[in-house]
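Hi R.,

Here's the chain you asked about this morning:
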Amino acid sequence: MSNPRLLLVHAHPDDESSQSAATIARYVDAGAQVTLVTCTLGERGEILVPDWEHFTEAELGQHRIDELKAAMDCMGLTDQVFLGGVGRYHDTGMDRAPDGSVIVPAEVPDNAFWNADLLEAANFLVEIIRSRRPHVLSTYNAIGGYGHPDHIMAHRVAMYAVTLAAAPSHAPELGEPWQVQRVVWSTHNTAMWQKAYPIAREKFPDLFGGEERDPDSFGPAVDYIEAVVPIEGYFDVYRRALAAHPSQVRIDDPFWQFHAITQQLPEAGEAYVFGCGQPFPPSDKPHTDLFVGLDLD
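And here is the predicted structure, written out as tokens:
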């Protein structure tokens, strides 16, 4: 690779570790320029450490900045930006409908990311895109993976910003136009989750509340997954980065143990589907490089 540049757009601190830790660390080690954009401070995250249950939302957000810094140290990441500045957008939070689906809470903060002006938020990202000039941008799919409002908004902002950043007539004061060559959407590695599920169910009967899961519900159809960045050699980095967010993650929880099982199987890795831009070259198997086939300057 010649001077590859990767930009990742995540909604909250800890999302980068649960979904992209191996990707970030692998490309950092390869000499790539890697930039993380975090859209909120995660002020409405569930507090899992009893000693911190007294935190206000503002106090939790400030604490999660430190957790993010610790995770970045694990991954070797040095370039991180909060969209619009620290605290510009507040974690919207999430609720669940009677059927279990994720919904927007009835009451949200005035500056909730879900309610952000789309053009304003996109312009904050346009400036970052034009300054970092990434070849590949990674974010969530249109439903935010599992429906969290902030993940959905991150997708909308990222996709809009990619279009605006390339337009010479749009906001020239934000920098020279830049065309992101490829946009990818992070996703579960469906095949690995399907293989790991029976193993995890046997070890952890209470996984998913003890309810049986349809293996087809774990992610997109396998044929849609265009790239799997291998976790081999980076499993320890992934686990340490995830553990750096103790307010949100109990590393020994059955779900995260299940997640760990998926990441230790042969061919395990962080999966991506193609969003837009230059497609991946045809292949019978997922590529292991997000930059494959691109003309890097």
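One quick note: The first helix runs from residue 15 to 29.

Cheers,
M.
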